[in-house]
Write a structure and sequence with these properties.
alpha/beta; Rossmann fold; five-stranded parallel β-sheet; two-stranded antiparallel sheet; 14 helices; binds 2-acetamido-2-deoxy-beta-D-glucopyranose; signal; ATP hydrolysis activity
């Protein structure tokens, strides 16, 4: 819009001296340009330079799909909404999600991507890297570093509001992640490109045992898990990620230099949360919620620790396959 306004101001003195016919043609071409841009964004996809996000819609989406994660939902919602509103962020937004498998780390990143770019992870502005798929061989780490830098640079020069999701960071070879450190820092520009409007998301299991222990302690003491507070976990998570040789963040400059904005814990899921996942899955597939099926599917999951059987080992991960059997 700014460009359009500048164009009109620029053309105004010229237009004032033109005949009506030229004027009409000029006006038509300006309108045509705007319509063309709009249509292009409708049919293809546009990079949102100053993308606003509908936080109400995001919250609704989280609430109807993600269960038992009060901390993660709150932190992500606040962090992302604030970041997207800021027209001049000083650095890209970096989020590190921690927790066992099936707790919703991947799912919440997809919902987030979908709320920013309608096509979600299919969008040309959302890039997903899976450690074991994109960077399998330890011996080629130098090649991967160059590749990763070139990809990110290329992608961000296409769109400042790019989203990068790194899955299985715990399986990344130590040192590789530091290749992206310059992009996460407070630089205004690097070789003419600004990375300040990007979002980087890291997913890993690192720190999962710390989170589980905390949740179990709360449970044993009869305290509500909703009372677990972020400060109790955040610091421990960053330490665990930094000190664990298998975390991908081992001795990483990303943590050392405080370049991660939020360490987000994903709590292990209880029986009641698994049931919520089953209900959501049923609704999504267009079935009526049958509580008998819901309980049966939730009971089929394995729970830990052995004696107490409080938390689902695989979270909600295999809910949809288990459900197949009953439909
Ligand atoms: C934001 O999302 C909510 C819920 O989907 C919707 O009712 C509202 O109209 C949206 N607001 C804008 C500005 O699009
Ligand atoms: C222009 C450019 O460099 N695009 C890269 C964006 O990232 C993907 C990987 O997700 C690469 O395959 C593209 O080449």
């Amino acid at each position: 819009m700014k460009l359009l306004r500048a164009l009109i101001w620029l053309l105004l003195p010229v237009l004032a001296q033109c005949e009506p016919i030229t004027l009409t043609v000029g006006a038509l071409s300006v309108v045509g340009g705007a319509v063309y841009y709009g249509l292009q964004c409708y049919f293809q996809e546009c990079c949102f330079q100053n993308g606003a996000i509908n936080s109400t819609a995001l919250e609704l989406d989280f609430d109807s799909n993600i269960f038992g994660q009060h901390l993660a939902k709150r932190v992500i919602l606040k962090g992302v909404t604030g970041f997207m509103k800021n027209k001049h962020p000083k650095k890209p937004l970096t989020l590190s999600f921690h927790g066992w498998t099936g707790t919703g780390k991947n799912y919440i990143s997809q919902l987030l991507a979908r709320n920013i770019y309608g096509h979600g992870t299919e969008s040309q502005f959302v890039h997903q890297f899976v450690a074991t798929l994109h960077f399998p061989h330890a011996s080629q780490i130098d090649k991967y570093k160059d590749q990763l830098q070139a990809w990110i640079k290329g992608n961000v020069s296409n769109c400042e509001r790019s989203i990068f999701i790194f899955d299985e960071v715990d399986k990344m070879h130590p040192g590789l992640i530091d290749a992206i450190k310059p992009f996460l820092d407070y630089y205004e520009q690097l070789e003419g490109i600004s990375y300040r409007k990007c979002i980087f998301i890291f997913l890993s299991n690192a720190g999962g045992e710390i989170i589980s222990k905390l949740a179990l302690d709360f449970w044993k003491n009869g305290k509500k898990r909703e009372d677990i507070n972020l400060f109790e976990v955040e610091h421990q998570l960053s330490l665990a990620a930094f000190n664990n040789k298998d975390s991908g963040f081992w001795h990483s400059g990303l943590i050392d230099k405080n370049l991660i904005d939020f360490f987000v814990p994903f709590l292990p899921l209880e029986f009641q949360h698994v049931k919520m996942c089953v209900r959501a899955e049923l609704r999504q597939r267009g079935y009526e919620v049958d509580e008998e099926i819901v309980t049966k599917v939730a009971k089929e999951m394995t729970y830990f620790p052995k004696d107490e059987n409080v938390f689902s080992v695989k979270g909600c991960k295999v809910v949809s396959t288990k459900l197949e059997y009953y439909l």
